[in-house]
Specification:
There is one protein chain. The protein is an alpha/beta fold and 257 residues long. It folds into 2 domains: 165 residues, Alpha/Beta hydrolase fold, catalytic domain (Rossmann fold, 3-Layer(aba) Sandwich), CATH 3.40.50.1820; 87 residues, Lipoxygenase-1 (Sandwich), CATH 2.60.60.20. It contains 5 helices and 12 strands. It starts with a strand and ends with a strand. InterPro entries: AB_hydrolase_fold (IPR029058), Lipase (IPR013818), PLAT/LH2_dom (IPR001024), PLAT/LH2_dom_sf (IPR036392), TAG_lipase (IPR000734). Pathway: Glycerolipid metabolism; triacylglycerol degradation; Glycolipid metabolism.
């Protein structure tokens, strides 16, 4: 059974006979996309973990792309009729959109087991363990025989519009150069299955010999990394023409370490 943002009003904190529960089937997976309190935030979805595995994309409260103003969002979405309906319950309805995207991307929507979304964002629960990570949505049941705990909360990030899946990488850059520079460092990944756009690794004071780490959610699963593009910029013309390079760049894919 797959729960697509099971309803909160009249169901949250009720006995298991009333609401969805993992005792309802051999395997129950749940996608939570709208878990803010119904009063006063109008959250329609249940917050507690109630399945064998529970996914909380983007933390489960506010989905990217749902915070736009009404007009731009309705125009962005699937026509005026569906767009108007989505605006009223955008977070809640993301659950079925993620699920339908998951059918097309068997390797997408990897959920990382983690105590909280903040810890996931900081990289504490990266990479996937030896057994791998479950895929949110249609292929979640591939993980059925690997569950070792009573409750498994899983976190991941998604894009703000279709196509929704993102792939998580840890990128570590050690800088080389002669002097400190203010600015930012971007990195793009090139691989056997595609290339990413540029992702910012750090900004502020860039110090040669220092190492900077960032976790990026890339819009492509690049497969085997063949090339890394390194770009830095200090946003203004510096008459001393500082030079900055990368001594080393390490890329770790969350899926297979």
């Amino acid at each position: 059974l797959s729960g697509l943002d099971p309803a909160q009003p009249y169901f949250q904190d009720t006995p298991i006979e009333v609401r969805l529960d993992k005792s309802d089937a051999d395997f129950v997976d749940v996608i939570h996309t709208d878990t803010a309190p119904t009063i006063p935030n109008l959250g329609f979805g249940m917050r507690p973990a109630i399945g064998h595995i529970d996914f909380y994309p983007n933390g489960g409260v506010e989905m990217p792309g749902c915070e736009k103003n009404a007009v731009s969002q309705i125009v962005d979405l699937d026509g005026i009729w569906e767009g108007t309906r989505d605006f009223v319950a955008c977070n809640h309805l993301r659950s079925y959109k993620y699920y339908s995207d998951s059918i097309i991307y068997p390797d997408g929507f990897l959920g990382y087991a983690c105590p909280s979304y903040d810890l996931f964002q900081s990289g504490s629960c990266f990479p996937c363990p030896e057994d791998g990570c479950p895929n949110m949505g249609h292929y979640a049941d591939k993980f059925k025989d690997k569950i070792k705990t009573d409750m498994m909360k899983l976190y991941l990030n998604t894009a703000e519009s279709k196509d929704f899946p993102l792939w998580r990488y840890k990128i570590t850059v050690t800088l080389s150069g002669k002097s400190n520079v203010k600015g930012y460092v971007n990195v793009a990944l090139y691989g056997s299955d595609g290339n990413t756009k540029q992702h910012q690794i750090t900004k502020g004071t860039l110090k040669p010999d220092n190492t900077y780490t960032a976790y990026i959610d890339a819009e492509v699963n690049v497969g085997e990394v063949t090339k890394v593009k390194f770009l830095w910029n200090n946003n203004w013309v510096n008459p001393t023409l500082p030079k900055l390079g990368a001594a080393t760049i390490t890329v770790e894919a969350g899926e297979n370490r």
